[in-house]
Amino acid sequence: MDPRPSLLLLLLVSAATSAAAFNITKILNQFPDYSSFNSFLSQTGLADDINRRQTITVLAVPNGAASSLSGQPADVVKHVASLHVILDYYDVDKLQSLSKGTALLTTLFQTTGLASGQLGFLNVTENKNADAQVAFGSAVPGSPLSAYLVKSIAAHPYNISVLEVSGLIFPPGIVNVKATATATASNPPPVAPAPSVAPASPAPSKAASPASPAPAHTKSAPAAAPAGVVDAPAPGVDAEGPVTEASPPPSPTIAVAPTPSADSPSDEGVGAEAPEPVAAEEASSGSRVGLGVAGMAGLVGVAVLAAL
User: Fold this and answer.
1) Structure confidence at residue 194 as a pLDDT band (50, 70, 90)
2) Cα–Cα distance between 219 and 234 in angstroms, integer?
3) pLDDT for 231 beyond 60
């Protein structure tokens, strides 16, 4: 197996890694004029953040201009120094050929989450009337363009560009950033109280509202039926079985008692009706006729016997 392709691949990877790897501290150590600024980057830990980036631009400030940052609290030093680190690659040629002559640049301070408004951005503007002089300033409205591009210190296209600027970019309000953040953390905004739930109105009580009287569960006395009519029981409220509409009463009928015979006993019971007077008279007449016929038959028999 030919080892040359593997060796060539290894060389390419090593070259790419070497091109991407840089150390801002080592770069600035070569230039004593920026020792104060280099010390700020190392003390605040910003140097490590810069070295982890793949594309970066550092605006280095000479010792004379950086002296105004000495004696400031550590957090203020870190915030101001991080405003001089741009999260993109800009060299002199790129800055002098801005398409609109101005641009808004994102800085490392913007990534901290402490920047409010435009505090984490820089305004870069090319002044055509001053020999293409490039000026930097805070993007906070009303901030001046306080630093000017001087020269290029070092460049590794398109990974890191180190440029010298004439002075520090010190935007208003940067000193109070930590105090504001600390006050917000220690005194968080009051939590709005949860909306009170109105007590549910009580359900209307059955006793409070007048209720219609319940039907009485008692049997009413049946109405008197006409004579000779078979009475149907009146439907009761608590009668067993489904309540159905009562059928109309039958038409009245007159019960005629049969003529009593001598062999049958007379019916004596509750509700038995006495025989009508007309029927009794007819029975008496029949008896008399029968007796008369019997008498005549007897006389005829006597006459026949006499004749013999």
Assistant:
1) low
2) 9
3) no
d(CA 60, CA 63): 9
Distance between CA atoms of 255 and 275, rounded to whole angstroms? 11
Q: Give the number of residues written for the chain.
A: 308
Q: Is the pLDDT of residue 25 over 90?
A: yes
Say which residues have a Cβ less than 8 Å from residue 112's Cβ, sequence separation at least 6: 79, 82, 120
Tens digit of each residue's pLDDT (9 = 90 or more) over 250-296 = 444 444 444 444 444 444 433 444 444 444 444 455 555 555 556 66
Q: How far apart are CA 249 and CA 271, in angstroms?
A: 20
Q: How far apart are CA 210 and CA 54, in angstroms?
A: 85
* 238 contact partners, CB below 8 Å, separation of at least 6: 217, 219
Q: Which two tokens stand for residue 98?
A: 């801005």
Q: Give one DSSP letter per residue of 67-84, joined into a string.
A: GGGTTS-HHHHHHHHHTT
User: To 5 degrees, how large is the angle CA 250–CA 253–CA 256?
Assistant: 155
Cα 94 from chain centroid (whole Å): 52
The pTM of the full predicted model, rounded to 2 decimals, is: 0.55
Distance CA 42, CA 62 (A): 16
Token duo for residue 108: 């490392």
**pLDDT class of 244 with cuts at 50, 70, 90:** very low
Q: Which residues contact 255 (CB under 8 A, 6 or more apart)?
A: 228, 273
- Average pLDDT on 150-179 reads 90
